[in-house]
């Protein structure tokens, strides 16, 4: 396939230019077989026949010329494939672009009413942004009637939304354009999931089967979609909203036009943004975040389990409807009964169906409520109607479901909304003759013989013991996986590849059997009980944000406590800032985005989580960078795991005291402002490219934040402060802004420090920042060498507690950063 493609790209172009205008099809020309059309200008896109995967069905499509794994961005005849590309023809006929099959019948057409255009002049042109257009080709070739397209493929997207394209609402026809998933990875026919614009809310929604809405972006506020806060950290896609008399739509461009990027409605029911990194398509963003939030992802009678692999399974008594569809990742067909209901073969036998109770389920939508007083009445009501396929009964009463059961979710105990559903099955179904019934028989035997009783006792003990062991590999909550220690040991090759060490334990690189790369943290000095540990870990697991490292799972076997995280390709920030040997210089624009990203991650911890989480250990070592250099805050929530014993935390974080706010030492209660202080210290290091506490060559301590504060406040040349490796190449305004923010953040009085939310607004340009006052402890520092101990790394904890306590209130008369809004 790949060879074939390369042949097309590099060899066919000269050949084509003999046969066809490279980018254009006109009235007397046709495209068939292996011939392709190359887009005008840069030749970014190719149009031609393709067949997806191993299928023998051919389609007309557009794909990237520079991406070696053929990636289709548009399909013409989604629903009408042809079987022989050599005898099929794509041509312009009566003012339309049409696809003719072997017997010259039109099987796909642009479908224009061609009365008002001069038919013989119409040409189809593939533009360099991937848009295939029909236009009047009379006059001077490709320069005529610019903008006046008779038809364009951007108005008829399939699953891909390319930069420059749009997903619109047409006010004249009141029609919503759809971005529709493929049916499966080998069939471009429209699938069940579609994205559309809801013009009233200035938001996008995703629906299942064009009806059931299961996701919304939240409304557009001119910067982001309200329910997609992580889009704030986005320096790839520039979205904008257009609203005119004819239509409203969003469109987007790429900040860096040379990146190859696309937005798709995936067969998984998620929207995804992907970028080509010269080897692979890497996922930049996807929503809904969890697979099982996609409505009816597993089809009828299927259950979706966020922790099960694969996500989809059939209910007991059911089997997958189509093995081949399931293996292609199309679960929408769902499951069918292994045995027909008695009810269906003989109505009077309906009462001989039975119910199988399935606990811990997320129930289907649209139940039929029924006012009955007991579970047996509820069951009986379901039995009486042949179309009733399940019931649930609890304090809220009786719910019945008719026909197919959709959107069942397998939850884990303790999530909160899990319930037991009773599934109607044929009484002769094998699920009723399994081990459960054997138990009953055995219980009968107990009465007869004490010997048997003892044997049973042994079996029961064995079962209990087994169950206990089983819980080790059972998941705790949501997306967290409980790993076995052995699995992690083999994934990390017996903890051989150490990525780093930290206050809470060492981190090792590992590779899971499905070749996902992970980072495994071996926790030290965790003396918590099992239950408390799991509670704490599952809390951390629910915290997900684009600027926070995601916890995938954990392992807890006795004293062995490990956490499993996503592995971050570019390591931690300190390795890029402080180690000059790194091949890639972190240029200023990236540094600014990193500063913003860290702030957003912290803001999420401080303000958006259910309980405010204070990180307590913000430093470059705890800022990880993914392949796009998107920063991810690591190690959050661990301070809580160690316990609320701050002296303990202090000891654990020994060696990183340059980032600790004075209140850690003065002993007053720690608030989120302690993180703001550490964040300010990190900002200085982003600017200078060296440790704040680093000694200069002549052995004299030169404390960078003091210097930076005085340059900033005195209106000096801030580019002087910049990491020399950047050679002064940076936006002066941005450097000044960062320095001001950093000075505000490291104020001794936490009340004067801005909240991290304010920092985010300032860095986003939504809020202005005034000149900061000189941080008191810096003044003191410059005056008196005694206080060096507070900022150097080698000092041990505890001994300097009295030294900075004195000046906490003296600065409180200073003004706070201005909060006036700039727009
Ligand atoms: C196609 O038609 C145009 C004018 O209609 C003519 O100039 C051109 O030579 C034709 N090309 C071929 C290959 O017949
Ligand atoms: C195509 O078929 C070959 C051989 O039959 C198989 O190895 C390969 O995995 C198939 N590819 C896809 C995408 O199904
Ligand atoms: C071409 O399409 C027509 C109309 O859809 C159909 O009747 C005919 O069988 C097709 N021919 C071939 C060879 O598939
Ligand atoms: C095309 O023309 C027919 C009859 O002339 C008309 O009924 C139909 O609405 C037109 N379609 C469009 C899309 O304009
Ligand atoms: C259509 O094109 C032909 C040839 O280019 C020209 O002679 C004719 O006048 C055009 N007709 C109209 C209605 O534009
Ligand atoms: C298009 O035509 C205009 C004049 O009509 C000319 O100035 C311009 O350079 C042309 N553009 C291209 C891309 O040929
Ligand atoms: C989708 O909806 C259509 C009618 O709106 C219905 O006929 C079809 O069965 C639905 N598909 C599924 C998979 O339920
Ligand atoms: C983003 O897109 C808008 C609208 O197309 C444009 O005005 C703006 O300049 C773009 N911004 C950047 C930074 O490219
Ligand atoms: C709206 O549509 C009309 C008719 O198609 C067109 O003339 C006009 O330019 C359009 N307006 C905008 C803003 O696109
Ligand atoms: C579908 O069901 C069959 C039989 O129950 C099973 O062998 C097969 O593995 C299943 N396929 C998938 C993809 O789960
Ligand atoms: C249905 O079952 C009843 C009772 O078992 C029996 O009398 C009746 O003949 C059956 N009807 C059919 C159509 O099998
Ligand atoms: C069974 O329930 C369906 C849906 O509520 C209803 O339409 C139907 O009439 C019921 N059948 C009987 C026999 O009650």
From TrEMBL:
A single BP term in Gene Ontology: recognition of pollen
CDD domains the record matches: B_lectin, PAN_AP_plant, STKc_IRAK, TM_EGFR-like
Topological type in the membrane: Single-pass membrane protein
Cellular compartments per GO CC: membrane
Domain of life, source organism: Eukaryota
Transmembrane segments: 441-465
Compartments in which it is found: Membrane
EC top class, as a word: transferase
Residues of the Apple domain: 343-424
Coiled coil: none
Record domain Protein kinase: where: 493-767
Binding site for ATP: 522
Reactions performed catalytically: L-threonyl-[protein] + ATP = O-phospho-L-threonyl-[protein] + ADP + H(+); L-seryl-[protein] + ATP = O-phospho-L-seryl-[protein] + ADP + H(+)
Region (Disordered): 793-823
GO molecular function annotations of the record: ATP binding; protein serine/threonine kinase activity
Chief place of localization: membrane
Identification of the protein by name: Receptor-like serine/threonine-protein kinase
